[in-house]
User: What shape does this take?
Amino acid sequence: MALLQISEPGMSTAPHQHRLAAGIDLGTTNSLVASVRSGDATTLADDKGEHLLPSVVRYFDNGAILVGQQAQAALTDDLQNTIASAKRLLGRGVADVKTFNGVLPYEFVKSDSNVPLIRTVAGDKSPIEVSSEILKTLKARAENTLGGDLKGVVITVPAYFDDAQRQATKDAARLADLTVYRLLNEPTAAAVAYGLDQEEALDEKIIAVYDLGGGTFDISILRLNRGVFEVLATGGDSALGGDDFDHAIAEWILQQLGETSADQQTLRKIMVEARRVKEVLSDKEEVNVSVKGFEVSFSRDQFCQLVEPLVKKTLFACRRALRDAALEKEDVMDVVMVGGSTRMPIIRERVEAFFEQPPHVDIDPDKVVAVGAAIQADLLAGNKPDSEMLLLDVIPLSLGLETYGGLVEKIIARNTTIPIAKAQEFTTFKDNQNAMTIHVLQGERETVEENRSLAKFTLRGIPTMVAGAARIKVTFQVDADGLLNVSAEEQLTGVKSAIEVKPSYGLSDNQIETMITDSMTNAKVDMEARKLREQQVEADRTLEALDSAMANDGDDLLSEDEKKTLSEARANLVAIKASGTTEAIETAIKAMETAAAFYVARRMDGNIRTAMAGKDINKFKD
Amino acid sequence: MSLNFKQNYFELFSLPVQFPLDKRLLAHNFRALQSQHHPDRFAHGTDQERRIAVQTTGYINEANEELKSPRLRARYLLILQQVDFELCDTTHDMLFLMHQMETREALEVAEQADNALEQVDQIAQQVKHGVASIENSFQQHLQAGNLSEAKDAVLKMRFYERLNDEAKRLQEKLEDEMFA
Ligand SMILES: Nc1ncnc2c1ncn2[C@@H]1O[C@H](COP(=O)(O)OP(=O)(O)O)[C@@H](O)[C@H]1O
Ligand SMILES: [Mg+2]
Assistant: This one.
């Protein structure tokens, strides 16, 4: 027997002591836990030998809670108390969740915090609590298998998750009493699992990770160079997954039944059957569909036709991600398949055709993410001090601030490597403006309503100054998990305000899922809307400048007649600003400037310093 | 080892302070710095070590972004020479502005054409040439010490950047339509 090792007093851990760590794939449909044991990363099974834990939680009135397979078995019987797909609700607000009504059979109730709660017999549960039950189950499984307490975990999230969703995931981990070393993007984890960094062949290579799960689709382009994984671009659709393929079949079944609507119970049955049918078709050419005594055969060809639009949608996103990374298909040297839905032959064929090479499918697509997370967790636990591996993630959606007129000024562009800190200066719009509201947004669109509202706070105590004189520096800091901190400071006086961004769920209509796609298709509308807004803002500025000038010296410099002319021009601009087109407003601004030209000249001549900011005087000059 | 924040971005990556850039060297040195300072290297460090790691890598990432983009790199070179940039700064070269407007309109027209993608591609190509020539003239003005001309070139790059974005967006949209 080896001698017992005794460490020096004060030395907390022996340097080569192995710390227990695990990787957790908290999936929409299935969750897994994996760990590195004797150098190998493997997923851990429950006492029945099952690796996949269905992400389903069932609540009972006596306080008991069932998680996983047993809960899933009750999906059709105990609809209201059996929560599936909680991940879809994580980090969402009450307004976002409204659109899930009808899709999800739960009764949602409002809470004070704007986090939607699901009414169950055991009380109202937030999606964070539901997720934490799944995490607790996996934690217990890992600690039983590994024989000790977990020191820390890496939890994976879709690369696409926004700040609120990441924050919610961390909150769920805290509820489950887990120490999170890091939130890791799922595609990055998958690339790690394939050990593509272990191959020696080349200096540098480009990897595409195609992840089609139950509820989401992610495509990421990574660059790998000597153990450093750099995410170059990421894209996808957080509302496109295997479920949508089920829906397509379910609709077809409804059609065959000759029904246009059905009760919740029947719908669930049809959905369950649709999913079974879909999965069978991955191995067979033909399958028998059977619901409520109705039987019909359904072929893979029929299926492929039904889902063609969905398949295409994923390929569009691939092209977009490549473009964002400024790369061509030919540059991609490895394609990695992730997610249960990549078992569908149609997906494999089309992805192969698109990238012109067979994708990697050797690691079980369900397990690959958890395995990668385990490798990273092992590293972060300090068990592999010599490893060169480093994962550099990017921010998936741009971060910005609301500026005057409901427009968004981007501060950090999507696909910027994190952590990152960026500052931008803003100024006041009005004379003597003492406060400024900082409204933080995430998304690609140009107007406030169409982006995700993350937080709002107010910087008060700005000293009295003319418009445009204050210098307000707003700093965005994103950490390695992709979580945001915002602070604002008035530069001249040092008045400060800071906030750790907690989601305010300000989104009125739920467009998060399609934000990027929308931002592309709506680019033109955006541009027009933007031009109109800009003209409206321009009109406001012009009006403000005139008002401020008249209040100052109008009585001294203008006759009553002149004042009347100016106020008519003013009224005209106000009216057109409210209802006119971009061009009409532009013309009206010009008209007012022309009408006011003599007044400006008079003011300049008199060399009168007014409270008007320099920029506004310039405006009147031409 | 902590990072010296007083170095300028070029020094940080051991690059010469100049406009022409060795991209591979930047990428290589970027990775080396990240490997050394990334917060993941301090998962077991003290709170302070981790905070410093976040700040340091944030700085490295920002520097990398600035140097990778020709416009931001050019702008940074001028800032190093005490040239000020204000929010409302813009070029007053009327000819240039007219040309920009024409190109923008040409893009709008091209979008409606039968061979839209071809036309947009062509315009995008022209924009590329425009960018190359403006970068060229920036480099010359900088070397000659004509800072205000160099600044004007930087301001013009921003216009090209917007045109380029617009062309890219159109290409994407048109290709998607073809692909659909
Ligand atoms: N053999 C199969 N053929 C087709 N789809 C499958 C197959 N196996 C699993 N799936 C689908 O994979 C999805 C779940 O994938 P998974 O990666 O676990 O999702 P998530 O990451 O969202 O939890 C479900 O939609 C499921 O129907
Ligand atoms: Mg998954």
Remarks:
- The CA atoms of residues 550 and 558 of chain A lie 9 Å apart.
- Chain A has 15 helices and 27 strands.
- The longest strand of chain A covers residues 228-237.
- The longest helix of chain A spans residues 523-557.
